[in-house]
Design goal:
- With 97 residues, the chain is of the alpha+beta class.
- The protein has helices at residues 3-14, 62-95; strands at residues 15-18, 34-38, 44-48, 52-53, 59-60.
- The protein folds into two domains: 1-60, no CATH class; 62-97.
- The chain is built from two helices and five strands.
- The chain is elongated.
Length: 97
């Protein structure tokens, strides 16, 4: 699959048509994670922000969850690394005359 087809497929997944009959100015079905765009007087689309998918941008994408988990794991590893470094430094300092 070439890059252009991937981009088009991604955009098709993001642009979900909602037919609620209400305008975006009076009713925002997309919530805080999407932007409502009027296509006509009858229908509108939700353009989801990064990491959000669904008809109303109310579901977190799997890539967003993976990035959050990765960030938490990196933070834990940094805490362990610096904790061990401080422990070793204090132990060496205590053993020196």
């Amino acid at each position: 699959m070439n890059p252009m087809n991937k981009i088009i497929a991604f955009l098709v997944l993001i642009f979900i048509t909602t037919s609620n009959g209400q305008s975006c100015s009076t009713y925002n079905p997309c919530g805080q994670y999407g932007y409502c765009v009027e296509i006509s007087n009858v229908s509108s689309e939700c353009i989801c922000k990064f990491w959000w998918v669904g008809s109303y941008c109310n579901e977190q994408s799997s890539s967003g969850i993976q990035v959050i988990v990765l960030g938490v794991l990196v933070a834990i590893l940094l805490i362990v690394f610096y904790g061990l470094s401080i422990f070793c430094w204090a132990r060496r300092r205590k053993q020196q005359p």
